[in-house]
């Protein structure tokens, strides 16, 4: 819908100015209406293209530049984007004819879910494909009835442009190797229950296992 020219006597506040929206803001607004005719057509065409490509493929540029920039991507040397295809749904137990051969509590076959979310699995596969790169973050781009597609932002820790940039060279530290395998990325922290705040989330930090171990370990303050 076209906006009328503003009245000269009308002053627009700085917090909301419909006549001063940047390009990335328009892209962000497009993705908030995923069921609009424009976005449904784009998703359908792109999904057909993604199905013809390998499961892990490098993208020439981010499909969602606004989202990628919010997650740390820069259009400079050392940053690359990989698109990963993940099969949707739960994970059926691979047993012959449903015979689990165990206690009844472990006889489930169909309604089993993987512990980590799909985005975390996509980061893991991209990190395994490119062992010399570091996973920075990831975001959703598309899905159909069978697959979900994510784009993973990866950084080259050996590139001079990365090592000399004080805003991103923290990822060059040896402790940042394979962040995706240790639940340190945003998707991994969400799967570990680390994104919340308040008294309800105290039992999740530093981790659920560490919290349980601290409360269930007998501590004797002197030698016995």
Question: How would you characterize the overall build of this protein?
Answer:
The chain is of the alpha+beta class and 224 residues long. It contains seven helices and four strands, in the order H-H-E-H-E-H-E-E-H-H-H. The chain has a four-stranded antiparallel sheet. A hairpin with a 3-residue loop joins strand 3 (134-143) and strand 4. The model has no long low-confidence stretch (mean pLDDT 91).
In short:
The chain has helices at 23-31, 37-52, 65-70, 118-129, 160-163, 186-191, 208-215; strands at 56-59, 79-87, 134-143, 147-155. The chain is of the alpha+beta class.
Radius of gyration: 23 Å
- Proportion of residues in extended strands: 5-15%
**What's the N-to-C terminus distance?**
79 Å
Secondary-structure element series: HHEHEHEEHHH
In which order are the strands of the major sheet placed? 1-2-4-3
Features:
single chain, 224 residues, alpha+beta, 4 strands
Detail the topology: elements first, then pairings.
Blueprint: H1 23-31, H2 37-52, E1 56-59, H3 65-70, E2 79-87, H4 118-129, E3 134-143, E4 147-155, H5 160-163, H6 186-191, H7 208-215
Antiparallel strand pairs: 1-2, 2-4, 3-4
């Amino acid at each position: 819908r076209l906006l009328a020219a503003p009245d000269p006597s009308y002053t627009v506040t700085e917090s909301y100015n419909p006549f001063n929206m940047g390009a990335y803001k328009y892209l962000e607004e497009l993705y908030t209406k995923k069921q609009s005719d424009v976005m449904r057509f784009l998703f359908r065409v792109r999904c057909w293209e993604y199905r013809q490509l390998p499961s892990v493929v490098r993208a020439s540029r981010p499909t969602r530049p606004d989202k990628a920039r919010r997650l740390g991507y820069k259009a400079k040397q050392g940053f690359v984007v990989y698109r990963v295809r993940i099969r949707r749904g739960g994970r059926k137990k691979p047993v012959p004819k449903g015979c689990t051969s165990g206690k009844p509590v472990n006889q489930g076959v169909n309604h089993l879910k993987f512990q980590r979310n799909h985005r975390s699995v996509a980061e893991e596969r991209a990190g395994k494909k490119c062992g010399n790169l570091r996973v920075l973050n990831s975001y959703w781009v598309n899905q159909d009835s069978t697959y979900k597609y994510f784009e993973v932002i990866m950084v080259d820790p050996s590139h001079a442009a990365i090592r000399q940039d004080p805003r991103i060279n923290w990822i060059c530290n040896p402790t940042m190797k394979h962040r995706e395998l240790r639940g340190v990325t945003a998707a991994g922290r969400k799967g570990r229950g680390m994104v919340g705040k308040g008294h309800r989330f105290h039992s999740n930090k530093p981790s659920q296992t560490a919290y349980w171990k601290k409360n269930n370990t007998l501590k004797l303050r002197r030698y016995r």
